[in-house]
């Protein structure tokens, strides 16, 4: 009998996405070096207060990171993330999660910082 552990798959996925993100950051150092100020970042993270939205955002951002790597030479870092997702034919429900809200525009260059922060917040919620 084979026993499969879901957290093991999640960890594996996060490691793979992390390596894709590292590749993306090597090609575009601006992604790795981009950092929002703390006030702006608090507002951005507050857009994902709902635990389900946070979990969905982490999963969707993982898909976005993989697709960005596959289209690495054609990326506009200052494009709104939701607009880029539309062109990549994401579901409307998925790209609307990253639509401009409260005057905050999430850009393609935010994906690394956002994925890491939401992934860490998701982990915090699990262990609280």
TrEMBL record:
Lineage: Eukaryota, Sar, Rhizaria, Retaria, Foraminifera
Protein name per Swiss-Prot or TrEMBL: Uncharacterized protein
Highest taxon in the source lineage: Eukaryota
């Amino acid at each position: 009998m084979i026993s499969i552990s879901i957290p093991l798959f999640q960890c594996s996925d996060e490691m793979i996405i992390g390596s894709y993100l590292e590749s993306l950051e090597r090609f575009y150092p601006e992604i790795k070096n981009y950092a929002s100020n703390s006030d702006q970042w608090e507002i951005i993270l507050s857009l994902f207060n709902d635990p389900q939205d946070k979990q969905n955002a982490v999963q969707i951002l993982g898909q976005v990171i993989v697709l960005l790597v596959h289209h690495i030479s054609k990326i506009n870092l200052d494009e709104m993330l939701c607009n880029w997702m539309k062109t990549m034919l994401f579901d409307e429900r998925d790209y609307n999660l990253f639509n401009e809200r409260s005057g905050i525009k999430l850009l393609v260059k935010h994906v690394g910082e956002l994925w890491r922060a939401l992934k860490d917040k998701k982990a915090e919620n699990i262990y609280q």
